[in-house]
Amino acid sequence: MPIVTVQMLTGRTTQQRKELAEVLLRETARICGCAPEAVKVCIQEIPAENWNIGGVWGPDVVAARQKAAAAAAKKAPAKKTAAKKAAAPKKAAAPKKPAAKKAAPKKAAPKKK
Known about the structure:
alpha+beta
């Protein structure tokens, strides 16, 4: 009976933890060749205060991730809503240029005798 234990910082939603457990269970059973009912998945959430990641205290890691996420959200272009898309004028398609015709190869004239 495989037992999978995941330790991670607190802060994930119930839906995220549930999806993680389901995927780990399914893939562990597939890889190990056993029934999903035989797999146990345990998710342990540990407060940031109890982590040190690469020499950085856990709460500082969390703060840096939140700051980076906020900066990325500000840089992301705003998505157009359906109403704005409908109101936006459509660009006319540029007329296509006719393709250049290649000259047909010249046939050699028959030789006179």
